[in-house]
Amino acid sequence: MEDVRFLVVDDAIFMRTVLKKMLTDANFTVVGEAGNGLQAIEMAQQLQPDIVTLDITMPEMDGIQAIDRILEVSPNTKIIMCSAMGQHSKVVEAIKKGAKDFIVKPFEKTRVLQAIYNVMNR
């Protein structure tokens, strides 16, 4: 697969670190990271990543609120939502707004890679 560029968005530094390691171990490129939806929009506009992994629950602006704006400033970007268990209704809302897939915390590498291949092959 060609070099896929990622923006990793999560308010928890630990979760960003775990996900970045999974991505770089799979030979993907992480071009940036953000801790909330406002930063994610700004970075998506600047970096034009192929995929944004977007946490649902964050301060200042959550992932659901950020979806429309990210797709507005970076229309070719695919969004994979990151959710905790029990956030099914939020994931459904995110998919309706334009997210292409979701992964559940704690992250399982096989599921993360499956979600990436799913969105890149659409």
UniProtKB/TrEMBL annotation:
The modification 4-aspartylphosphate is found at residue 55. InterPro entries: CheY-like_superfamily, Sig_transdc_resp-reg_receiver, ST_Response_Regulator. SMART domains: REC. Keywords: Phosphoprotein. Residues 5-120 form the Response regulatory domain. PROSITE patterns: RESPONSE_REGULATORY. CDD domains: REC_CheY (cd17542). GO terms for biological process: phosphorelay signal transduction system. May play the central regulatory role in sporulation. It may be an element of the effector pathway responsible for the activation of sporulation genes in response to nutritional stress. Spo0A may act in concert with spo0H (a sigma factor) to control the expression of some genes that are critical to the sporulation process. This is Stage 0 sporulation protein A homolog. It comes from Cellulosilyticum lentocellum (strain ATCC 49066 / DSM 5427 / NCIMB 11756 / RHM5) (Clostridium lentocellum).
